[in-house]
Amino acid sequence: MRLEGKKAFVTGADSGIGRAIALTFAREGADVAITSHQDQRGAEQTAEGIERHGRKSVIIPVDFTRPETAEGLIDQIVAQLGGIDVLVNNAGTGDEAATSLEESTEAFQRVLHVDLVVPFLLARDAANAMVARGGGSIINITSVHQEIPQKGGAAYCAAKGGLGMVTKCLALELAGSKVRVNNIGPGMIATPMTTGSLHDPEQSEDALAKIPMGRPGEPQEIANMALFLASEEASYVTGSSFFVDGGLRQKVGLV
Fold first, then answer.
1. At what angle do helices 105-112 and 154-174 cross, to 10 degrees?
2. How far apart are CA 189 and CA 195, in angstroms?
3. What is the Cα 33 distance to its own chain's centre?
4. Residue 184 pLDDT more than 80?
5. pLDDT given at position 9
6. In sequence order, what E strands does the chain have?
7. What sign results for the dihedral spanned by CA atoms 91, 104, 38, 73?
8. Active-site residue list
9. What's the domain range around 101?
10. Would you state the pLDDT for residue 200?
């Protein structure tokens, strides 16, 4: 088991990518804390899966649209799990503006709060706890859109691009403390958030045409990368972005 005895915290693990990561970590020997927001039952199902692997689970209800809710959260995790070795900043949100010019100030700030401010606060506090513990791994889930712009995506792309740079800054500062910081940039992944577009023939055909591998990714394929970065197999890896996108960025001109 690659994470035997480790303590992990995965945000947004009530479904999709977060659930796959949490269950993979538990399978590999980690106790896992997760957050819940609107899908309490989904979080409970993830926790049940963690416990089926014989590991401890903790659910913490939180609303990340209010950045102050992140303050003190790592202290709660440390108290309930007995420490923290791995943080995965997976929780995120988007917006529905047709163009960035139609984006409201409130919506722009909400996306930045959830996708950038909160991950930074959690990474900062987790890093301090990890330094005291002798090391750890922080994994930020960004997106191919940390590099690829999209119509109506000023807030989302700015937040993901910013989180990519937060990753690099923290990695630089923490390299001497045995705390590694990396990020994963998923492309199109088959999750509840993408079900609508994948089931719509026209939208699906258009989206898949931009992916050289011709298919969406699976949450487990992101979880596999997260497991590598969380484990000692990645002991010399920090400050890097890993895109799991089926080659999508190779067709950036068509996106």
1. 30
2. 9
3. 14
4. yes
5. 99
6. 7-10, 31-36, 57-61, 86-89, 136-141, 179-186, 241-244
7. positive
8. 156
9. 7-244
10. 62
